[in-house]
């Protein structure tokens, strides 16, 4: 459920996934919604979707602070999901420390 926030809040995660999956971001912008079931969505599927939508690495970098703040607030405001969100936030914080940000 929080995959996009995790992806966008983790430094260079989108770029690394594009490289690892050998994907190229399409030059044209598409606004087509995701057609699959989001309950079982993986990070790789999300990256493929965003690449097909034309979402650039720069755009993802630009939403880093918003995504991080959203996860931080959601960890306290969504009590029923706080454990899951805090776990994602811990992963993001580890990625940030490793990246030196």
List keywords for this structure.
mainly alpha; 101 residues; 6 helices; single chain; 0% strand
Can you walk me through this structure?
This protein starts with a helix and ends with a helix. It contains 6 helices and no strands. Helix content is about 65%, strand content about 0%. The chain has helices at about 5-10, 15-20, 45-55, 55-60, 65-75, 80-100. It has one domain (about 5-100). The model has no long low-confidence stretch (mean pLDDT about 90). By secondary structure, the protein is an all-alpha fold.
How many domains? The number is: 1
- Low confidence ranges: none
Which structural class do you get from the secondary structure elements? mainly alpha
Classify the beta-strand content into a percent band: under 5%
Alpha-carbon Rg, integer: 14 Å
Number of strands: 0
Helix content: 55-70%
> What letter string, H or E per element, gives the SSE order?
HHHHHH
Mean pLDDT across all residues, rounded?
A: 89
Q: Overall 3D geometry?
A: globular
> Main beta sheet: strand number and arrangement?
none
Determine the number of helices (DSSP H or I, runs of at least 4 residues): 6
Distance between the termini: 25 Å
